[in-house]
Structure formats: C-alpha cells, structure tokens
Amino acid sequence: MTLITSERLAQVPSATDLYNIDHMLSDEERMVRDTVRKFVRERVLPGIDQHFEAGTFPRELIPEVAEMGLLGMHLDGYDCAGLNAVCYGLACQELEAGDSGLRSFVSVQGSLAMFPIYAFGSEEQKQRWLPRMARGEVIGCFGLTEPDFGSEAAGMRTTARRDGNHYILNGTKMWITNGGIADLAVVWARTDDGIRGFLVERGTPGFTTSDIHQKLSLRASVTSELHFEDCRIPVENMLPNVKGMRGPLSCLNEARYGIAWGVLGAARTCFETALDYAKTRIQFKKPIASFQLVQRKLALIATELVKAQLLALQLGRLKDEDLLHPVQISVAKSNNCREALNIAREARTILGANGITLEYPIIRHMNNLESVFTYEGTDDIHTLIIGQAITGLDAFA
Q1: Which domain holds residue 167?
Q2: 3-state secondary structure of 234
Q3: 16 within a domain of the structure (yes/no)
Q4: Structural domain total, the chain
Q5: Active site residue: 29, 96, 254, 376, which one?
Q6: How far is CA 103 from CA 6, 110, 259, in A?
Q7: What is the pLDDT of residues 271-321, one digit of tens each?
Q8: The pTM is what?
Q9: What is the number of alpha carbons within 13 Å of residue 170 lying toward its C-beta?
C-alpha cells in the first residue's frame, strides 16, 4: 500500500494544469508546446491587439511560422514535419493562446488546403504544391461555404462544367479564411460526376476575391468571398482521388480536430488573466480573489478547463492510433468551443469594466470564440451528429 504523506499533499498542482496533464505528454510533445508558447509570447502577443483593433492579419509572422515547421506539421513527407496528432493539437493550443486568427491561418493552411492535396491529390499535385505550402511560399484557402449554403454544404450551387481539357467554374464561396491572401484555393463544386475538388490558382481569369470587413470577431484574420465567373480550370487541377461530400467533410474533420485543441489556448489565457487580476485587484481592502464568489468562478473555470484538456488529449491519442471516429471529433469540438466561450465570458466578469478593453486579452478572445463556436460546423450541427450516433436516428431531415 502506498501512503499519501503530508509532504506529497503539500505539492499544490499548477492552477492551469490541475491534473498534471504535462506528465502525460512525451518529451517531443512538450518541446513542441514550449517552442510554440515561446514564439507566441515573444512574437505574437506584443502586437496582436493592434492587429485586432486595426482588422489586419500579421502576415509578417508567416515566414517564422513556416520556419518552425507548423504548416502541414501533421503530414508526412513533402517537406512537412510529420509530427503526431497530439503535437499538432498542442501547437494549435499555443497559437490560439495568442489569437484565434493565427491558429485559424495555420489550421486552414495545413488541414483545409494542404490535407486535401495530400489525401486526394495526384503525385504531381503533391510534389508541385505541398513543399512550397509547407515553406509558406504558397498560401492556401478552402472554398466550401456559400452565401446560401453553410451547414447544408451539399446544397452548393457552385458548378464546374467539363469543356474539353478544362472545367468552367461558376459560383461564389463565402466566409473563406485566408481567401484574400491565398495563392491557391481548394474549391468544391458540383459537376456531372458529383461534387469534386479543384485547385484554382490566383491570377486565373475569372477568379477574384473580396475581403469581408466590419467584423467584430476574428479581426486579426483575413475573411473573404471567392468569385468564379467562367473560370477555366485545367482538368489536371481537379483532385483525382475523391468524389462526393466525403472529400470536404474529411478536411473539415481535420480542421475541427485542431479547433478542439486550439480553443483551450484562448480559454487558458482568459483564465490566467482573470486569476492574476483577481489576486492584485484590491476592493474593500483586500484582493477580490479572497471573496467566495470570485473563487467559485475561478474554481469552475479551472475545472472545465481540465475536463476539456483531457478530452482533447484523448482525442489526440485516438487519432495517433488510427482509432478516431468523426463523432468523437464532434464531441470535442462542440464541448470545448462551448466551454471555452463560457470561460471567456466568466473571466470577463471578474475584470468588470476593465474586461471590455484591449488592455486585457479577454474581450478579444471572447469575440473570436463566438466565430470559432460557429465555424467548421455549428454547435447545433455537432449536437445532432452526436444525437444520431447515440440514438441511431437521423434528426437532420
């Protein structure tokens, strides 16, 4: 029998790691996490609030992100880092601790633009695009959502009509992260042979983009519309190895996986900010952290953060063992986005009026999380996916 001594009981766990999850990580996983955390602390945080306020994306960071091997880091070969799923998740977590916009950029590049080429492209397409995308020389985006079709992506109206050695693409895609800065768009369109994916290069006649402005969320991120008007795409630019919604949905699952991790970084930053503030904010001659109601808020935040971290870690272990089912991704994406948003809102209340200014990061993360809660499948859609899995009944129709 192992006795718990008073000395061992005296070792209080970290406020942001109550379950010693750090101990469950490999040396390589901790190294990736710590490297990205240092980068965010030194290069992202000093200016991200200004980018958020100005509504600009920190493009100057792209070469550094690429140099760290974060673009397509979970893919093997083609100059990609080939790291495991947990490493990828931890990197997303640390990037989003800086800002959701930066994590979104990395997620779109690796999971939504590089992954479909890696999984469904020809060898020529892989050799042509993936190494340059891994080095950040080519920026990609993912065109699925349309003005009239978000959750019902299969209802898309964008079409690609075969014309000799080309396809003629017509339609509009909306809410496209990286769209205005992308050199290559992975676009899904309806053909006579079903839904297919196409690689559309910037500069192709008939392909234009327009950025979406007046956003109050994800302001440090480029969000755009993609417009296609009689845009001629060579046949060899079609992804040859997938047909139907399986293609775009598998890409979305890759992105949702990263989101389930990423939002924990935003939540942790909000928690750390509220905790530090509560310890130093003096009211009624003592720090507000000494009040029962504030401690209750902090305790609930810390508990939900631990639960979400454990959910993400198990998700990563399942993915690394090729045991992951899409329903499990929906559970983690839905739960972690919901709880991260709740954590941000609760943390904001601890700061009172100070919590609504960009002097502190909470309101920035809270606004960003409103978008992350919605994109790559709304909470409603993920709830129905989970409901269908546990009841065997389809509630979509």
Answers
A1: 140-237
A2: strand
A3: no
A4: 3
A5: 376
A6: 42, 11, 8
A7: 999 999 999 999 999 999 999 999 999 999 999 999 999 999 999 999 999
A8: 0.94
A9: 5
